[in-house]
Design a protein that fits this description.
Layout (H helix, E strand, L loop, with lengths): L24 H24 L20 E3 L5 E4 L5 E10 L6 E8 L2 E12 L3 E10 L10 E10 L4 E11 L1 E3 L2 E8 L2 E12 L4 E4 L4 E8 L5 E8 L5 E7 L4 E7 L8 E2 L3 E3 L4
Parallel strand pairs: 2-8
Antiparallel strand pairs: 1-3, 3-6, 4-5, 4-7, 5-6, 7-8, 9-11, 10-11, 11-12, 11-15, 13-14, 13-16, 16-17, 16-18
């Protein structure tokens, strides 16, 4: 333990000094203090003046009409199941110099066009980011509604602009997966599971038949995934495949999806080499 020594106390009583100050020294000390004070005051303006703030980045001017929209981000996409309302989310970027006053996304749904007001969420010298979302309830959909919904972004202001893209509304998928047995026996491993797709007509999940499920391995000492096998579901949506054991790691089943059906990854199943 480190100990801090206590200060040494004087052995006798503490009394004020009885020595009289040198009268001849007092004027010199006063003059010195006065000079120091004047010097200090002369520095106050320099110390009080703040450093010049960095000039903000210049805002590029608007290139011209119909060039306000810079980008619409990734294609809006959503997977809708059987019970929960989901959100189709939109992101729009406009040029800061074009002074966009408002932005909307008009979605052509099977029930008619619905318009979403986009909110400004950030800006810098180059661009302004806008976001918004459209709520989609499964009870409002039929199976034939899945697919591409035309979406038109519109910007109001001194330089109005518009751009149309496809939004993807897909039926959600569920996939179960198992890799076994555990521990592995005879150097063989079996992958099995069940693939189902949401039916908006009945609001239940139904077997998804004759679809390809890919099997991937993530080795314990790596982050990359390797596709090691592929199989196809039967009429009941189930799949089963036995292959030579390719070593310890995490295994996962993946369905790639289509224009109308969402992609889906199963849970990861870890399989170790028996000791």
């Amino acid at each position: 333990m480190h100990l801090t020594p206590s200060p040494v106390r004087p052995s006798g009583p503490i009394t004020p000094s009885t020595r009289r100050p040198d009268a001849s020294a007092t004027p010199r000390r006063a003059r010195g203090l006065l000079v120091a004070a004047i010097a200090a005051l002369s520095l106050v303006p320099a110390l009080a003046t703040p450093a010049a703030a960095a000039d903000p980045a210049p805002v590029p001017p608007c290139p011209g009409p119909a060039q306000t929209i810079l980008d619409v981000g990734d294609a809006p996409s959503v997977a809708v199941g059987t019970t929960k309302t989901q959100k189709l989310r939109f992101t729009l970027y406009t040029r800061t110099g074009c002074d966009a006053a408002a932005a909307t996304a008009a979605v052509r749904t099977p029930q008619g066009t619905r318009t979403v007001r986009l909110e400004e969420v950030s800006r810098d010298a180059e661009r302004v980011q806008w976001r918004g979302a459209l709520s989609i309830a499964p009870r409002s959909l039929r199976n034939e509604d899945a697919g591409r919904w035309r979406t038109t972004f519109r910007v109001a202001g001194p330089n109005p602009d518009s751009r149309t893209v496809n939004s993807n509304v897909r039926r959600a998928v569920r996939i179960s997966f198992n890799a076994g047995p555990e521990p592995v026996r005879n150097g063989r491993i079996t992958y099995s599971g069940h693939l189902e797709r949401a039916s908006w007509d009945t609001r239940t999940y139904r077997d998804l038949a004759r679809r390809v499920v890919s099997i991937y391995q993530i080795r314990l000492d790596e982050e990359d995934m390797d596709e090691i096998a592929a199989t196809r579901t039967g009429a009941d949506g189930r799949y089963r495949l036995t292959r030579p054991y390719s070593g310890p790691g995490f295994y996962v089943g993946v369905y790639d999806g289509t224009r109308y059906t969402s992609a889906r990854w199963s849970r990861r199943d870890r399989v170790d080499t028996p000791g």
